[in-house]
Amino acid sequence: MHKILLTGSTGFVGTNLVKHIQENNIGEILLLSFREALPTSLEGDTVVHLAGKAHDLKNTSNPQEYFEVNFEKTRDLFNLFLNSENKDFIYFSSVKAVADAVNGALIEEEIADPQTPYGKSKLQAERYLLSKDLPVGKRLFILRPCMIHGPGNKGNLNLLYKVVKKGIPYPLAGFDNQRSFLSIQNLNYIIERILTDQSIPGGIYNIADDQSLSTNSVIKIIGEADGKEARLWKINPGIIKTIAAIGDKLHLPLNSERLKKLTESYVVSNNKIKHALKIEKLPINSKEGLLTTIRSFRSS
């Protein structure tokens, strides 16, 4: 049976991926903890490297921690992979390794210019992996997901859900944007295909659902999932930005980073991965995926 060496198994993506692999009998999972020293050699057939230091929206983390975890540990793990019997290395990077803001749709060929320690550390890891000569018969996948959601995820979608559920009007409807999302179901599908199909070429791939959505559309979908009509308030964006700037200083729930997350446009093209998988569309459309996630908030 295919042996999959997995880091980051306790995170949101990791727990969902483990469940998917086990339920679909895709392979045997071997766990590797990044909290402990790396072994001197690697077991398995494929390394799926999820572990990393996530982007801190409160900006309280020491920047050096990102490079120690996201770059240095990835470098050491990849060096072990190069000298192992493992055939494939699947590295979870991020669209934030390329750009913090996007004009149009982000493609893989975009010149990388990350602005945060998180993005810079992910890009440094990418560049190291790409700088090494791959032995014949090995594949390297660098996956750049956008915002991932699904049952059990407690990010900004959960925050929006609580606002709508309480009947509080959404005050940011004055911002007009388009965002890409990634449902955990589509992500699991893509990883399963890579694990089970040796004809898929390695490379850098953006990972996103097929359709982008405005935050206002997301709010309406949340209302639909909860059986009520969402209330949208179009307050002047300038006033909102001033409140967020005050939130930066007073550590309020609405700060500039969170406002940016909720209102900026960030569209990600997934054409390259669909071409590699020889498909026209992913299994779950954006609205379906969001409804599944939001209904899970209601049940929990």
Task: Write up what this structure looks like.
The protein has a domain at 3-152 and 180-211 and 268-284: Rossmann fold, CATH 3.40.50. 35% of the residues are buried. The protein is globular, with a radius of gyration of 20 Å. 41% of the residues lie in helices and 14% in strands. The two termini are 35 Å apart. It has helices at residues 12-23, 63-82, 117-131, 156-165, 184-196, 215-225, 237-250, 256-263, 271-277, 286-299, and strands spanning 3-7, 28-32, 46-49, 88-92, 105-106, 139-145, 147-149, 181-183, 203-207, 267-268. Helix 1 links the parallel strand 1 (3-7) and strand 2 (28-32). Helix 2 (63-82) packs parallel to helix 3 and helix 7 (237-250) packs antiparallel against helix 8.
Index terms:
single chain, 300 residues, alpha/beta, Rossmann fold, 10 helices, 14% strand, globular
Known CATH architecture of the domain at 3-152 and 180-211 and 268-284: 3-Layer(aba) Sandwich
Q: What would CATH call the class of the domain at 3-152 and 180-211 and 268-284?
A: Alpha Beta
Taking all Cα atoms into account, the compactness measure Rg is 20 Å
Broad shape: globular
- The number of helical runs is 10
The count of DSSP E runs of length 2 or more, i.e. the number of strands, is 10
Oligomer designation? single chain
How far apart, in Å, are the first and last alpha carbons? 35 Å
| Helix and strand pattern | EHEEHEEHEEHEHEHHHEHH
Task: Please give the share of residues in helix.
Answer: 40-55%
Mean pLDDT: 93
